[in-house]
Specification:
single chain, mainly alpha, Four Helix Bundle (Hemerythrin (Met), subunit A), two-stranded antiparallel ribbon, 2 strands, 4% strand, flat
């Protein structure tokens, strides 16, 4: 194996972020436009609010990732929880802008950059810790997006993973044998 652990880490991180984005994209594609703005209760966030918040976080954390605090002075986090975008197109444009910022920043990282320290809210983090923090944060919110999308899509939901009852068939296929009956 010629890849260093640092190179393998960077490669895997990109893959994991792509998987999270893909889950979010596939979930959001299954809901009606009006469902983007529905909350389950007064304390819950709508899909639109989750998208706004994630986009704000993505842009703040990944713009000038190595050279400025991840909490930008122009970010108004609280406003991300007040509905601003009112169309699917506006929301998804912001979503894409945030993810594009992340993927550009991560693609620019070198193995040597992993040893650097960056700031998030004036708190020092190793680059690895900062990346892992964001991976966890986005996983949390993408999970919320998938949950809400599945709720709203209801009986029209198309699974994003192995369907119920599909594990045996999947495992049999991997082993090259017919599924048990």
């Amino acid at each position: 194996m010629t890849d260093s652990p640092a190179a393998l880490y960077l490669e895997d991180v990109v893959d994991q972020f792509h998987k999270l984005k893909s889950l979010g994209d596939k979930a959001l594609a299954q809901v009606r436009d009006e469902d983007l703005f529905v909350t389950l209760d007064p304390e819950s966030n709508s899909l639109a609010i989750l998208i706004q918040h994630m986009a704000g976080n993505l842009l703040s954390r990944w713009t000038d990732f190595l050279s400025s605090d991840g909490e930008k002075p122009n970010r108004d986090r609280d406003s991300e929880f007040v509905l601003v975008s009112t169309t699917r197109e506006d929301l998804l444009a912001r979503w894409e802008e945030g993810w594009r910022c992340l993927f550009q920043a991560v693609a620019a990282l070198s193995e040597e950059d992993l040893a650097m320290t960056v700031l998030i809210r004036a708190e020092p983090h190793s680059v690895i810790k900062a990346i892992n923090r964001q991976l966890t944060h986005y996983g949390y919110h993408v999970g919320q997006i998938v949950f809400l999308a599945k709720h709203f899509a209801s009986d029209h939901w198309r699974t994003l993973s192995v369907p119920r009852g599909g594990s045996d068939a999947f495992n049999a296929m991997k082993l090259g044998r017919p599924p048990s009956k």
